[in-house]
Amino acid sequence: MLAKRIIPCLDIKDGQTVKGTNFINLREAGDPVELGQAYSDQGADELVYLDITASFEGRKTFTDLVKRVAAHISIPFTVGGGIHELKDVDRLLNAGADKVSINSAAIKNPQLIDEIAKHFGNQVCVVAIDAKQTPNGWKCFLNGGRVETDKELFSWAKEANERGAGEILFTSMDHDGVKTGFANEALNQLSSILSIPVIASGGAGEMVHFKDVFIKGKADAALAASVFHFGEIKISELKEYLCKEGIQIRL
Amino acid sequence: MKVAIIKYNAGNVYSVYYALKRLGVEAELTDDKAILSSADKVIFPGVGEAETTMQYLRNHQLDKLIQSLKQPVLGICLGMQLLCRHSEEGNADGLAIFPTDVLLFNPSNNEKVPHMGWNTIKPSQEPLMKGIKESDYVYFVHSYYVPVCPYTIAQTDYILPFSASLHKDNFYATQFHPEKSGKVGEQILENFLKL
After folding, report:
1. pLDDT in tens, A122-174
2. Distance, CA of B42 to CA of A2 (rounded, Å)
3. Which of A9, A86, A251, B170 has the fewest CB atoms below 10 angstroms from its CB?
4. Mind listing the pLDDT tens digit for each residue in B136-148?
């Protein structure tokens, strides 16, 4: 049976791992390659490296870091941030990334999803969506949550799915960094309307939150950052716990 | 031992290079036909779209070259699918080493497409699968699959049982990514290098 995936996310700025609370107040959390290796040894199923400031500052993702990660780590990893066109995707895949995650670029130019899928295959294209509950429902945001768009979460996710996305990485900005659990209701709804896997992000604080996101949220994978970086939850212990709770997990 | 990795326009051909390097083997990533023909082992990796990739292979005469190889060849993921006769992806004609077709998964209620993540394989008693147990997980990322056929040497059940690995003559193939499958994947790559 296909296992549910545990994915530590490493937010990268200037070649270092950082993690903010609600996307602000960044603090450093170590070398990205060393940290990735440690996670892989603990049983992480995949890694995500996000160049979090890239779209804001217009920088390209750190190709050199991608090469170092690919050289050292034997599990899949996704790279995101600063991907605007096919050339960026090509460069990152050639540096050794397995998948790319696009966010702002997809909202501004949805056709990019179709192009990535056509050239590299659907599975390469992770569409990341940052969304927040507003008086008008769940709305998507750009540039690390700085700019509200007129896109609605569920219809945009469905469109991305139809255009050829391989996965949806949904971050609830309301839950991100506050450690009270994932946005299970929205996740469950996403999972039921999409034919592709959903990665849940934002809100992990305790082990039970992961159990909930897989059962209540019906997520295919759960992503977290600070609880892993600061050792609050050990991935090996988390996976043993989830296994005992009857969730399909790779030990 | 000389190991060559076929260089073409697909994404992520380097991950195989790095995985071999972690096993102490310095492989050559090349589209040079003489080097590929004379290598002891050839790896045909792949992440990409079937028809786009086949066009590239044909334009560079790599299609004929791959068909002519006599040493052990390992096709990975799209590499495996292109070694088959035909793929529903882009309605692409493949290299027809394995006389079987590649089909698109139909998503079921609980099982999504692509089949993405770690799944277990049922290995048979084949040298490529030496030391691999039924409970071992490997990493898959694919939307198209090869049905179980006489050349299947490992199966996985997702939506339906399909070929996780194939073997015919000097051609071997895995639908999963051994280069991304941690220690289990390393074992399979080592097995291939020992063939």
Report:
1. 889 999 999 999 999 999 998 767 889 999 999 999 999 999 999 999 999 99
2. 30
3. A251
4. 999 999 989 999 9
Tell me the chain A residues in contact with residue B21 when contact means C-beta distances shorter than 8 Å: 71
Q: What is the pLDDT of residues A189-207, one digit of tens each?
A: 999 999 999 999 999 999 9
User: Do the beta carbons of residue B157 and residue B142 sit within 8 Å?
Assistant: no
Which one, of A215, A248, A201, A209, lies nearest residue A232 by Cα? A209
B116 and A90 within 8 Å at the Cβ level: the answer is: no
The residue among B86, B7, B4, B14 whose CA lies nearest residue B51 is: B86
Please answer yes or no on whether B12 and A76 come within 8 Å at the CB atom.
Answer: no
Quickly count: other Cβ atoms within 10 Å of residue A27's Cβ: 12
CA B9 to chain centre: 16
Per-residue pLDDT band at A57 (split at 50, 70, 90): very low
Read off the pTM: 0.91
CB contacts, 8 Å: A98 with chain B: 12, 15, 47, 141, 177, 180
- CATH code (residue B15): 3.40.50.880
Of B75, B102, B98, which is closest to residue B6 (Cα–Cα)? B75
Closest CB to B19 among A46, A74, A97:
A74
B139/A220 touch (CB, cutoff 8 Å), yes or no = no
Tokens of A192: 């039921």
Q: Give chain B's domain count.
A: 1
The set of residues, in sequence order, having a beta carbon less than 8 Å from that of A80 and lying 6+ positions away, is A48, A49, A50, A51, A61, A100, A101, A102, A103, A126, A128
DSSP string, A178-242: T-S---HHHHHHHHHH-SS-EEEES---SHHHHHHHHHTS--SEEEESHHHHTTSS-HHHHHHHH
**Domain span at residue B96?**
3-194
Contacts of B11 in chain A (CB under 8 A): 89-90, 93-94, 120-121, 124
